[in-house]
Write a structure and sequence with these properties.
With 341 residues, this protein is α+β, with helices and mostly antiparallel strands. The chain has 10 helices and 14 strands. The protein has helices at residues 2-13, 25-30, 32-48, 55-61, 107-121, 136-146, 215-224, 227-257, 275-280, 287-291; strands spanning 72-73, 86-93, 125-133, 151-159, 162-170, 174-181, 188-196, 199-207, 261-267, 284-286, 294-295, 309-314, 318-323, 335-340. A 6-stranded mixed beta sheet has the order 4-5-3-2-14-13. The protein has a 6-stranded mixed beta sheet with strand order 6-7-8-9-12-10. It is globular.
């Protein structure tokens, strides 16, 4: 019980440690959910035995009340119809349009299905990560057809197989844009200045470093005792953990240098009990914590444990709606957030 409670406490404090300097602390944050369940089991076990040791898991679990709201929210009966000016923002990692889980025959069919689903959301701002196209001109025509009335900004890396990157669509006039490229990484952040009414907001469309590992591959390596593969996976995870704080630093520096209030959204590739979330959400509201309902998980694997996609808004803006529609066109689910300005 002491060990389990101690590990859970380490997961709480892990958000304060920069993984670029103390990389192993990030693992405790990743283990927050299973460690919380372990302590709940021990709490119930101690209660059943009427043991005085029940205080150990109880005390260990109390701080989790500060974090659980980032994973689960009780349903609310409040309405999103406020009668005031509001905007809807969608963030979606489209997974390079390579999913076939809803019967798409190829990437173009998957792309068109995603475009149709996003167009039906009728959002004011759409941020897409892991965007892919083999023909950039054809893709521009497809976007113009599917999203009439939107302004488009994008940054795509060119490779031998096509173009990869982030795309932002906005119904509002765009007064400026730039990309934030990360060292030794194909990931990036794209910001756009959107004129909403008589006020300008900066929208950061982020795709931070992923772990670049396969969960089925890891499970197979464990089952077959493939130590080389496990070692390689460990090195990849450590590299990602170390790079992500550097990427966060660039984004935060850009926000600090910018004169405008900022929305920060996208695929952070990290859970809510992490240095990544702690830093980027500081001084901003999380749309899920303010207006979400049920589980906030945005990644289909191990649902409902993994929430890695977010929409964060300035402190003077209030989220009045948050959904994660269970679309199966990508390994991620879109995050649909609505805000009262």
């Amino acid at each position: 019980m002491l060990v389990a409670a101690g590990l859970l406490v380490l997961s709480y404090v892990s958000v304060l440690f920069n993984p670029a300097k103390v990389w192993f602390m990030a693992f405790f944050g990743l283990l927050f959910v299973p460690l919380a369940f372990l302590n709940i089991f021990l709490l119930l076990w101690a209660l059943a035995r009427r043991s005085g040791a029940v205080l150990i898991p109880l005390v260990g679990l109390l701080p989790s009340l500060l974090f659980i709201g980032s994973y689960f929210q009780w349903p609310s009966s409040s309405s999103t119809d406020t009668g005031e000016e509001s905007i809807k923002l969608v963030s979606y990692n489209v997974g390079r349009f390579c999913s076939s889980r809803q019967g798409q025959k190829n990437g173009l069919e998957c792309r068109d299905s995603i475009f149709s689903a996003l167009a039906e959301e009728d959002a004011d701002i759409i941020c897409m990560q892991e965007f892919y196209t083999a023909d950039i001109q054809e893709c521009k025509r497809a976007i113009a057809k599917a999203f009439r009335g939107y302004n488009m900004e994008y940054y795509l890396f060119r490779s031998a197989r096509g173009w990869f990157g982030n795309v932002t669509l906005s119904r509002f006039p765009i007064r400026g844009r730039d990309e934030i490229r990360f060292e030794k990484s194909a990931n990036l952040a794209l910001w756009t200045d959107c004129m909403i009414g008589n006020r300008s907001y900066r929208v950061y469309n982020c795709h931070l470093e992923s772990y670049n590992i396969s969960l089925p591959g890891i499970m197979n390596a464990v089952a077959t005792d493939d130590r080389e593969m496990l070692k390689e996976a460990g090195l990849k995870m450590r590299g990602s953990i170390v790079r992500r704080p550097q990427q966060i630093g660039k984004i935060l520096q850009s926000i600090e240098d910018g004169p405008k209030d900022a929305f920060v959204c996208g695929d952070f590739n990290d859970n809510p009990v992490s240095y990544t979330y702690f830093r980027l959400s500081s001084g901003r509201h999380d749309s899920f914590r303010q207006s979400g309902s049920g589980f906030g998980a945005s990644y289909s694997a191990l649902w409902p444990l993994l929430r890695i996609d977010y929409v964060l808004c300035p402190s003077d803006v209030w989220a009045i709606g948050h959904r994660t529609p269970k679309l199966r066109y990508s390994d991620h689910y879109p995050v649909v957030a609505q805000f009262k300005l």
